Amino acid sequence: MAAIKVLVGSKNPVKINAARQIFTQYYPDHDIQCEGLHAPSGVADQPLGEPDTLLGAQNRVHHLVEHHSADYYCAMEGGAHQFTYGPATFAFVVISDGEKESVGRSANLPLPQRIYDALLGGEELGHVMDRMFDTDNIKQKGGAIGLLTNHLATRESAYTQALLLAMAPFNHAELYS
């Protein structure tokens, strides 16, 4: 069985598991070797706005490409923004094979205004959720999405969908050239 090495720009088990799941689905006849490594985002611990959130994911992938060897590199960066219809959290994902890069984005999870205001005050979403819901390290578990959807969705499920979609250019390279 041929191996495919996938590096994830984070040691967060939620992100590593999401990447492993997607590559296993796309390459069922391969041994998926998925590893999480520290890769700096170069943005705030809690990115606010779409540009900074995307930049964080891109920076993580670029760091991996520059310093490591793999078949695929991927990163997920969660952010928040005050949209015209209200505050929400979301994630950007970036996948690279070292030559081409694809960007995907999760759906928005509406946030209560008081949670977003805490983010504006400098707090990270995971810490705010832990305090409000009396949880511990929720960002490495179901995340805010798990808590706010009564665990019908999870942080991993949001990353999984975004990663699945971001793989399209690798599946049909002839259409994306």
Name its key features.
177 residues, globular, six-stranded mixed beta sheet, alpha/beta, 24% strand
What's the arrangement of secondary structure elements?
Elements: E1 3-8, H1 13-26, E2 31-36, H2 50-67, E3 72-83, E4 86-96, E5 101-105, E6 109-110, H3 113-120, H4 125-133, H5 143-148, H6 155-166, H7 168-171, H8 173-176
Parallel strand pairs: 1-2, 1-3
Antiparallel strand pairs: 3-4, 4-5, 4-6
Helix pairs in contact: 1-6
Give a verbal description of the structure:
- With 177 residues, the protein is of the alpha/beta class.
- The chain has a domain at 3-82 and 91-108 and 153-176: Maf protein (Alpha-Beta Complex), CATH 3.90.950.
- It is 42% helix and 24% strand.
- Strands 1, 2, 3, 4, 5 and 6 form a 6-stranded mixed beta sheet that branches.
- Helix 1 crosses helix 6 (155-166).
**Mean of the pLDDT scores?**
96
Distance between the termini: 29 Å
Question: Structural class, judged by helices and strands?
Answer: alpha/beta
Q: How would a crystallographer describe the biggest sheet?
A: 6 strands, mixed
**Silhouette:** globular
Please name the CATH topology of one domain.
Maf protein
CATH class of one domain: Alpha Beta
Count of helix runs: 8
Task: Give the topology string: H per helix, E per strand.
Answer: EHEHEEEEHHHHHH
Tell me the Rg in angstroms: 16 Å
CATH architecture of one domain: Alpha-Beta Complex
Helix content: 40-55%
Low-confidence sequence ranges:
none
Percent strand: 15-25%
Would you kindly provide a brief summary of this structure?
The protein has helices at residues 13-26, 50-67, 113-120, 125-133, 143-148, 155-166, 168-171, 173-176, and strands at 3-8, 31-36, 72-83, 86-96, 101-105, 109-110.
